[in-house]
Amino acid sequence: MASGTLTIPKGARRGTIDVTILGDTVYEPDEYFEIALSKASGARLASSDAVAAISVNNDDQPPQFTFETRQQSVSETVGKVTVTAQLSDISGKPVTANLTVSGTALGNDDYRVDTPASITFAPGEREASTEVEVLVDSIPEGGETITFEIDSIENALVDARNSINQHTIIILGDITLNDTGLDTFSDNASANLSSEPQSHPGQDAAFGRDSRALSDSDGHAGFSFTKLDEDGNPLPSNTPTWSCTRDNVTGLVWENKQPQFDLSGDMAPADLQNFRAANFRYAWRVDDETSNGGSAGQEQRRDQRLDLNNPVSANCAFAAGDRPYPLYCNTKTYLNEMNRLGTCGFQDWRMPSIEELRSIANYDVSDASARPDSRFQNGVEASARYWSSNPSADNNAAAWCFDYDNGEVKLCQKTPDQYRGFMAVRSPE
User: Taking a C-beta distance cutoff of 8 angstroms, is the pair 415, 397 a contact?
Assistant: First the structure.
């Protein structure tokens, strides 16, 4: 506490006390102090005016709030992740930022965070944080995101133009690439050797998932699959009938082609799922001009349209009944039907890329073809080439297709009516 003496000269009626106010850059509540007169000599202190109160009003701007970084990448097994924020200057008031949480990761399934999410700075702190718990699951999946944004803030500002006002946690995916299925070696005389000959080093079977001693119960060599029923429930590996197949390595879910259906009888299949028969063939059709390479494929002429009451042709068939779209034997109609029916519990079926088709090819020398493991994909026919979503960059009337007879990528003509095999796929969750 400061003290001093005020002297009023003889003959004067007033005196002054000079007080220096020291400024700072701290955003804080208004302050005040008092000056009290006491122990007067030569005068009597008035009882009501012996104390003067001086207010010091805050004129500093609130500090700016920012996240420390825009993003961070973590593995699914990381446990707890810290999200740190900072202020441009200390504050004399508590600062609370209320946050919104969004992204592709699911709360309580992929992560846990306090709700409502917030970050609080005590007076005088320039850095504060909140924690996110990343949860581990057994589902092979791609990368996911958790994004924090500022919903509201007390006693601080956010500069939308310059500050880092969003922070994203990227949970790295645990899906990988399939191997080729080759688990034997060759010396140019035999292609079924169990060990790599010194004369021919660096062979495919010496690397990747196929090189490990993995169980064949869920797929040949490095492949790993799970059968799914028509509702999407997992089934035992030895189940004789199934509707879809999840690739546990890449995370992709493939439809499993169903038993062949005789089209010669000119009768629509009674079972809605029978439209996925292994022997049915389809024309390529993609309407999106940004991805069809300049040609949509099948023209979808009136004479190509199937009768809704008996939708059967020489190439494919569907169950009879009304739909909100016309029926053609093409990939567009096929995907519409898959998604309308929610095949295996999903409504996001799409065309596979050429690399996705290649990812399930099994080049095991014990099979003369490159067909996928028939224990988990039993409807893929070596005699058919299968459409991909990839148009040719040079030939707008062609798209890339995969030949499971020899494991080669080839061009297939979209037009005129070229009918090929087709398998729908959905992306990892």
Answer: yes
Counted residue by residue, the chain has a size of 429
How remote is the C-alpha of 415 from its chain's centroid?
35
Mark whether 104 and 223 lie in a shared domain: no
Please check whether residue 333 is in contact with residue 340, taking contact to mean a CB–CB distance below 8 angstroms: no
**DSSP characters for 362-394?**
---TTSSS----TTT-TT--TTSEEEEEEE-SS
- Taking residues 280-309, what's their average pLDDT? 95
Task: For 308-365, write each residue's pLDDT tens digit.
Answer: 998 999 999 999 999 999 999 999 999 999 999 999 999 999 999 999 999 999 987 5
Per-residue burial over 72-106, b = 16 or more CB atoms within 10 Å of its CB, e = otherwise: eebebebeebebebbbbebbebebbbebebebebe
Helix locations, 243-322, DSSP H: none
Which pTM was predicted?
A: 0.60
Domain extent at residue 82: 65-171
- 232: tokens are 């999407």
Does one domain contain both 374 and 406? Answer: yes
**CATH number of the domain to which 159 belongs:** 2.60.40.2030
C-alpha closest to that of 113 among 94, 126, 125, 100: 100
